Structure formats: structure tokens, C-alpha cells
Amino acid sequence: MDDASQASPQPESCRAAPATGFDRAPPARPSLESDRFDHPLPAQSVHFAVPPMRTLTLRVKAPAAVRVHGAIVWITRARSPYDHWLRPGDTLRLERNERIWLSTEAATPARVTITTAWQPPFAKLRRWGERVAVRVAKLALRSSQEA
Fold first, then answer.
1. 72, 77, 83, 88 alpha-carbon torsion, rounded to 10°
2. What confidence tens digit (pLDDT) does each residue in 106-130 have?
3. Which residue(s) pair with 23 in the sheet?
4. Distance of CA 33 to the CA centre of its chain
5. Sign of the C-alpha dihedral, residues 45, 46, 52, 58?
6. Using CA atoms, how far apart are residues 64 and 31, in angstroms rounded to an integer?
7. What letter would DSSP give residue 53?
8. Rounded to the nearest 10 degrees, how much is the dihedral formed by the CA atoms of 89, 92, 93, 97?
9. CATH numbers and ranges of domains, the chain
10. pTM over 0.85
């Protein structure tokens, strides 16, 4: 530094406070709507190929993400006026019970991966049993209060 810059003090608003790392809060991560689609681990993935000049249809039973590998895939969603052209590496988020049609015009098959959160075996049966148990408990409580 030269003598001139040392002699003229900087205004208070221009001085930077020393940052130690402990006196700063971490930057806030903005909440995105797409965060609700991100699948926690463990996740299950299904890999398959879309043959050239053929159309496949499928319905996803849980929120899922479709990722394309190898060739451009044309995806049409049920009840949507828009078509989606996904390049290799692109991802499309799907809602529960959504039906899609996949096709490719490439000369080679396109590889597609559908990823969703892993559901333990008999999870639906377990939740149904829990709901029935809650209803029975409420009925028993109501009948004991009436008596």
C-alpha cells in the first residue's frame, strides 16, 4: 500500500469486518416447489429401454422422476396440452397416478430411468390397519362415554 491510501481513512460504511466463519450465518437456501418432489433415500429405480419408433405407456403409482439417457425421448402426459422433449440427462417430475406415453425417433433405443421413494413391503396394509385401529378405538371410547 502506498502512503496516500494509508493516510486517508475509509468511511465506516466501506470497511469490511473481519469474517471468522463463526460470526456469519450460513446463506439461506431458497425453498423451491420442486423440493417436494425430491426423493429421500432409500429410493428405488426402474431402468428400461424405449425402442425406436415405438410408444410405451405407463402409470406411476407414487411421485417419481423420469431421467433420460442415450437419446431424445418424447413424453406426453395424460390431460396435458404440452409434450416434453427430454435430452439425455434431463429430468421430468411426475405426480402420483400420472399416466405418460414415451417414444423416441432416434435410430437407437433410448434408456430411461424412473426413480421413486422406496416403500417398505406391506406399507399400505400397515397404514390401513392403523386407520382401522384408530376408528375402533374412537368407537370404543364413544360407547364407553355414552354408558
1. -20
2. 999 999 999 988 777 777 788 888 9
3. none
4. 9
5. negative
6. 19
7. T
8. -130
9. 39-146 (2.60.120.10)
10. no
